[in-house]
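Practice problem: predict the structure.
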Amino acid sequence: MEIAIIGAGAAGCFAAANIPTGEGIKVTVFEKTGKVLQKVKASGGGRCNVTHECFEIPELITRYPRGKQLLKKTLYQFSPLATKEWFTNRNVVLKTEDDGRVFPASNDSQTIIDCIWQEMMRKKVQVQYHKAIESIVKENGRFTVQFADKTTHYADKVLIAAGGFPKAEQYKWLTATGHTIQLPVPS
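Answer:
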């Protein structure tokens, strides 16, 4: 099975690091820039706020002004506790600040970047850079992903983790697949 992930930010790379791999499963992440996990580097003032110590999901979602229902579903699938366990199981030492925010004890977002990257490499995830997406077409149960550089990739599954774009027009390739777009807002 061939899995294509569009976007090498936190969501795309974390997904790639968590897809069970093995015989016959190949995961490739496509990134339009030349770097992975760029926003993670700057998040939390360069320290990377990994999660929150509040493990009661109904209480936690009250702290978010938008998207509570979507967030609630997501947090039940992968909770703050599961997030902490994922990193600690990979030897990342975490610390909790007085306000409940959880950071790497190193106070350096590079710790989180390295952890996710190492897990991707352990699973033999391939990363291709400078791959701006042009279109995705599904035919006969497979996806054809066309890139701006005129190259093509074929996949059985496609995960879109392209992040927020500054302009709605940049979503045209996705709306052409039949998806509707809910414009992103800052968290």
